[in-house]
Write a structure and sequence with these properties.
This protein is of the alpha+beta class. The chain has a domain of 56 residues: Nucleotide Exchange Factor Grpe, Chain A, domain 2. The protein is built from three helices and six strands; from the N terminus they run αααββββββ. A hairpin with a 2-residue loop joins β4 and β5. The longest helix has 86 residues.
Length: 205
């Protein structure tokens, strides 16, 4: 209630008191708002409510933070799982590619064997320009295989290893140590760290 309205009501009450014989019209109180007691009570209630609200907000914040931590943990686990899956797929693709390339290169090895047999069958006295031309073709063939990752095994004189050698005979009269490769009948080849074709050999008995 503003000042002008309050003053108007006080004047009206004074006139009313004079008209009806009221000795002290000012004894009539105006209830134009909350009393000081009510205000104090509301203040006390607000003071009691504030800590409770703060506790609720703290509890809610802790719950949200815990939920966010759970979501972060789940996200990190899913990311790690995806990275492992990606690496596994890339590894499998590389292995599949190497396998397919190995199958193709393996089919070329008999052709290389025929080249070596043909070159070895030509006597030294007959190694003319034609022979030199074929030798150049053989060098290109060997270079192609080398660039593809194919390498010849060093089997002659090595200790027999069934992972790399295929024994087709035993030389009992050999003067070398037992299980030593005495003769290479067919060259063996590696593709990277994998055996492309084992060497066909004879070993000392």
């Amino acid at each position: 209630m503003n000042y002008l309205t309050r003053a108007t009501l006080l004047l009206a009450m004074a006139l009313c008191g004079a008209a009806f014989g009221c000795e002290n019209a000012s004894q009539v109180r105006l209830n134009d708002g909350p009393s000081d007691v009510d205000a104090d009570t509301d203040t006390d209630n607000d003071a009691d409510t504030a800590p409770a609200d703060e506790d609720d907000m703290t509890a809610q914040l802790a719950e949200v933070e815990a939920q966010a931590a759970d979501y972060l943990d789940i996200l990190q686990r899913e990311r790690a799982t995806f990275q492992n899956y990606k690496r596994r797929v890339e590894r499998e693709r590389a292995e599949q590619k190497q396998l397919l390339e190995g199958e193709m290169l393996l089919k070329l090895l008999p052709v290389l064997d025929d080249f070596y047999r043909a070159m070895d069958a030509v006597p030294e006295a007959e190694q003319d320009d034609w022979y030199a031309g074929v030798a150049m073709i053989l060098k290109k063939f060997e270079r192609y295989l080398t660039d593809a990752g194919v390498a010849e095994m060093e089997a002659q004189g090595a200790l027999f290893n069934p992972a790399y050698h295929e024994a087709i005979g035993v030389d009992s009269a050999s003067d070398v140590a037992c299980d030593t490769v005495t003769m290479v009948l067919q060259r063996g080849y590696m593709l990277g760290d994998r055996v492309l074709r084992p060497a066909m050999v004879r070993v000392a008995g």
